[in-house]
Write a structure and sequence with these properties.
The protein has helices at residues 17-33, 35-42, 57-63, 89-94, 105-109, 115-127, 140-144, 148-159, 165-168, 189-207, 209-214, 228-232, 249-262; strands spanning 5-10, 46-51, 68-72, 99-102, 131-136, 172-175, 216-220, 239-242. With 263 residues, it is of the alpha/beta class. It has a single domain, classed as Aldolase class I (TIM Barrel, Alpha-Beta Barrel), CATH 3.20.20.70. It has an eight-stranded parallel beta barrel with strand order 1-2-3-4-5-6-7-8, surrounded by five helices. Helix 4 links the parallel strand 3 and strand 4. Helix 1 packs across helix 3 and helix 8 (148-159) runs parallel beside helix 10 (189-207). The longest helix has 19 residues, at 189-207. The protein is globular and about 45 Å long. The two termini are 14 Å apart.
Length: 263
């Protein structure tokens, strides 16, 4: 099955509404000059998605860029309630979001999100028809201790607990080795492929071959124009979850061009 490459930019806590508007305007101008990119988007060979801070999502909604989808960086599993500081999935849908990032390592390690919490969020997203980008990945100590694949297995299967196989087809998985996020280090192409292949194999076990073959598996962890092509050439890597390199129009366009080179 031919997969559409998904290039998802996680802005984290960067770019308020004014900066977001400026970025979208500059990106729009850049895409107008890059006809091969726009053709690839229109033909659905490449998909672009950006994940701004919550406060900047209305800017995306108002700008309504035809070449870009957008999503939330997190969400609560309840639709409403006394959860100060939280945002619900229906709220994200109201602002035109197509995706929501769930289980990012920074949510797990800094804010104490558990596998159980991630599972509840994943179920809620699927129940509302919002596609989750589920993040899994090991720390450096876990990798050095030979536990990388067991950590991925635990995180993924716990998130999928109770999920109907037909709904699982909406899931995007991002393999993000914690030791490579924001550090400038990246997994080798072979290591990234091994982990992403393992993720797909878990979907075969859990949901069957047909669902597994359609799941998009991304690599995240210091992705840049310099390493994107090698990663995207791997058979089980269907795109990238991009951090710092998505904050610059120039570097984001650079990664898109590298994706074009592997099509």
């Amino acid at each position: 099955m031919e997969q559409r490459i998904l290039l998802a930019g996680n802005w984290k806590m960067h770019k308020g509404p004014k900066e977001a508007l400026s970025f979208l305007g500059d990106l729009d101008k850049a895409l107008e000059l890059e006809k091969t990119i726009t053709e690839a988007i229109v033909s659905k060979k490449i998909e672009l998605a950006l994940f701004p801070p919550f406060i900047s999502i209305p800017t995306f909604c108002d700008f309504n860029h035809k070449m870009i989808k957008w999503g939330g960086q997190n969400a609560h599993w309840e639709e409403k309630g006394a959860f100060t500081g939280e945002v619900s999935i229906p709220m994200l849908l109201e602002l035109g979001c197509s995706y929501v990032i769930l289980g990012h390592s920074e949510r797990r390690h800094i804010f104490g999100e558990t596998d159980e919490m991630v599972s509840k969020k994943l179920t809620a997203a699927l129940d509302h028809g919002l596609s989750p980008v589920l993040c899994v990945g090991e720390t450096l100590d876990e990798r050095n201790g030979g536990k990388a694949l067991s950590v991925i297995r635990r995180q993924l299967l716990s998130a999928l607990e109770g999920v109907d196989s037909t709904k699982a087809a909406q899931i995007v998985v991002a393999y993000e080795p914690v030791w490579a996020i924001g550090t400038g280090r990246t997994a080798s192409d072979a290591d990234a492929q091994e982990a992403c292949n393992f993720v797909r194999g878990l979907f075969v076990e859990r949901c069957g071959q047909n669902i597994a073959s359609g799941i998009r598996v991304l690599y995240g962890g210091s992705v840049s124009p310099k390493n994107a092509a090698g990663l995207l050439r791997q058979p089980d890597i269907d795109g990238a979850l991009i951090g710092g390199a998505s904050l610059s129009v120039e570097s984001y366009i650079g990664i898109i061009k590298e994706a074009l080179s592997v099509l």
